[in-house]
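In the previous lecture we treated proteins in isolation. Real proteins rarely work alone, and many bind small molecules. This record shows how such a complex is specified: first the sequence, then the SMILES for S-adenosylmethionine.
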Amino acid sequence: MANEADTVEDWLQKLDGASKLETHSTASKLGVFAKLGVAAILGVNALMLPFLLGSMRRRAIPFVTTSDAKSRSIFEQLSRHIEHNRTSPLKFIDVGSGDGRVVMAAKRFSMAPESPFRFSHCVGVEVNSILLGVSRCSNMWDIFRRWVGARNSHQGSSTQVSVSFVRKDMWAYDVGKFDVVMVFGDLRLMPLFRDKFTKELRAGSFVVSNRFSIPGWTPVASGDEFFIYRIKKPAVE
Ligand SMILES: C[S@@+](CC[C@H](N)C(=O)[O-])C[C@H]1O[C@@H](n2cnc3c(N)ncnc32)[C@H](O)[C@@H]1O
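The predicted 3D structure, ligand included, written as tokens:
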């Protein structure tokens, strides 16, 4: 009996040890992924150094990402302000589009049958070639996935959304033809964005500023660290 109790005790100890080991290895795996993520972001920002050391360094914005949940929440808020009876197709742009995730979120939102409005064109402007490469790959992968899905279900999608990623300096890129402009800028640069958007955008267009508010403008809506503005029509004299 004593022997049996010893055996059970040994077994329980082993089990306890094993579960600690398992918890430890899950935690260390998560730690490795977190470190890889941080290293990737630092690496991508390091690749911006030549650009940052150039004449544009005073306007540099580091690469930080927006979560898909936040993008969805932004599009849901926008849908309360966009006229749903619009006949002209809407154009979306993310200035400083990073790895393209916000542009891809705009595409997904536009292609979902239940979405109250759609963008016909979604554009990302980015200076970092690596991030542009990642963005283009995401879009190719999305096109491939949809193509396989449509083949398997024998149903094509009637909604077409054109997506493009361009390598340009956002300060030299005219955003005048877009209906919704998204920006995740930097506190110091918000007055410059305000001046750019005031000069280039048509009345009625929307500006969504992620994290930082635009000084002197009153948002029509806001959420968890984002602000939605509408360019006002000039006052009739
Ligand atoms: C804060 S990140 C935002 C990324 C993405 N929009 C998002 O929300 O996930 C800003 C991005 O702007 C890019 N950027 C900085 N200066 C730029 C410039 N002058 N022209 C184009 N892109 C720029 C950076 O490379 C970076 O990817």
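Summary for your notes: The longest helix spans residues 2-46. The pocket of S-adenosylmethionine is lined by residues 48, 56, 59-61, 63-66, 94, 96-98, 101-102, 125-128, 131, 169-171, 184, 210 (CB under 6 Å).
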